[in-house]
Amino acid sequence: MYLFVSLLSVFMLTDAQPSSQRAALRIVVIEGEDAINVIQQKTAVAPVIEVRDRNNLPVAGATVTFSVGGNSATFAGGAQTFTVATNAAGRAAVAAVNPLSSGAVQIQVSAAFQGQTALATIAQTNVLTAAEAAGATSAAASGASGTAGGSGGTTAGATGGAAGGGGGVSGTTLGVVGAAVGGGALAATQVVGGDDSTTVTRPGPRIFRGAFASTITLTFQGCTRVETWVGTLEMAMPDDGSVGGNASITGGTTRVEAVTCAGGPQLGATSTVFMPVTPISGTPGSIGFTSEVSNSYQPSATDAFGGINITGFQFSGALSGSDITGTLTHTRRIESANPNTRVPGAGSASVAITLRQ
User: Fold this and answer.
1) Where are the domains of the chain?
2) pLDDT of 28
3) What is d(CA 91, CA 77) in angstroms, rounded to the nearest whole number?
4) Residue 354: what pLDDT?
5) Of 5, 47, 165, 181, which is the most exposed, with the fewest CB atoms less than 10 Å away?
6) What is the structure's pLDDT at 81?
7) How far apart are CA 82 and CA 95, in angstroms?
8) Does domain 206-356 have CATH number 2.60.480?
9) What is the rounded CA–CA span in Å between residue 12 and residue 41?
10) Architecture of the domain whose range is 18-202
11) Of 87, 112, 57, whose CA–CA distance to 277 is shortest?
12) What is the pLDDT of residue 139?
């Protein structure tokens, strides 16, 4: 009962502030704060953040840049900066962190959306061996349980990851409350970048991800173009097991693999696959969404493939435990802007896909 009252107090104290006193944009650190990374095993906790607006709602499509200074660590490919857009759940993540030298690691995070910005710093620590990581994690766990001991709550400690070589261990994980209030799972997150920066316990969405790769053949008048489409489909679903939320595609690209048409994209040309944040509907046994977006392009009067490009996505599947399995169908139509000079074309492809939480 005390745990419930304490958590309720946190919600009330945080949400009681007038919206005018809150920052327009905030960064919530979901994973990575106080992480312990192991250099010898090349394991680290990749940061995950969530961007929220002044009403504490997730912001999809915000531009997020992660940067790390000095020689303490790099991101994938040796880069020291990584930029990505937030997904349907307002979240952005670094693909990988490579720890290089022992000591403190400071990862700067900036988010921008419609003229608003927010900043945050994620602190991590690099250690040389798994034994050092285990010692540091045990100390953190002892401190966390000592703090929670007087509240009667249950604190979930994560000490086995680094000691067993399974990866870095995050202090955020140590702060996860292993209890359910009102039937919803709880996750401790650190809110940064607003006037009400604090640690808040809130229900979080279930994020399902699945990679796809397929081939689509566009058939025009007298010629064809073959493209490969790859990307990751993400679904942010309510934590209570119901169907809802939004779907989005991240890292999507297309590449021309074969072409018999003149006057259009050449062999090897690449472009970005775009799908706007799309609502999910249905029941656990029948989940689906449909999305379509169009854009006009007319590079020149002699380009046979200028016109209106229409890209559509459709998904149907089912939720079972922590997996969503189904079929993703994508279509592409190029409609003629000028029938006398433009050549319309169309194609579609379907691919089986599994999204895991």
Assistant:
1) 18-202, 206-356
2) 92
3) 22
4) 93
5) 5
6) 87
7) 9
8) no
9) 43
10) Sandwich (2.60)
11) 87
12) 60
Instruction: Please check whether the two domains, 18-202 and 206-356, share a CATH topology.
Output: no
Quick one: pLDDT at residue 136?
Answer: 64
Identify whether the C-beta of residue 126 lies closer than 8 Å to the C-beta of residue 39: yes
Question: CA 321 → CA 149, 282, 284, 308, 324, distances in Å?
Answer: 33, 16, 10, 41, 8
Using CB atoms within 10 Å of the CB of residue 201, give its burial: 0 to 12 exposed, 13 to 18 middle, 19+ buried.
Answer: buried
Average pLDDT for runs of 10 along the chain of length 357: 44 45 80 86 84 90 88 83 87 85 90 90 88 66 50 38 42 34 36 44 70 88 86 87 86 86 80 82 94 67 60 93 92 68 76 92
Neighbours of 84 (CB within 10 A): 17
Phi, psi angles (nearest 5°) of residue 9: -65, -40
Contacts of residue 147, defined as CB under 8 A and 6 or more positions apart, other chains included, come to none
Which pair of structure tokens corresponds to residue 45?
Answer: 């906790």
**7/202 Cα distance (integer angstroms):** 9
Phi, psi of 239 (to 5 degrees): -75, -15
Which whole-number Å values give the CA distances from 110 to 23, 104, 106, 170, 347, in the listed order?
14, 20, 13, 21, 39
In three-state form (DSSP H/G/I as H, E/B as E, the rest C), the secondary structure along the chain is CHHHHHHHHHHHHHHCCCHHHCCCEEEEEEECCCEEEECCCCECCCCEEEEEECCCCECCCCEEEEEECCCCEEEHHHCCEEEEECCCCCEEECCCEEECCCEEEEEEEEEEECCEEEEEEEEEEEECCHHHHHHHHHHHHHHHHHHHHHHCCCECCCCHHHHCCCCCECHHHHCCECCEECCEECEEEEEECCCCCEEEEECCCEEEEEEEEEEEEEECCCCEEEEEEEEEEEEEECCCCCCCCEEEEEEEEEEEEEECCCCCCCCCCEEECCCCCEECEEECCEEEEEEEEEEEECCCCCCCCCEEEEEEEEEEEEEECCEEEEEEEEEEEEEECCCCCCCCEEEEEEEEEEEEC
pTM over 0.85: no
Q: What is the pLDDT of residue 49?
A: 92
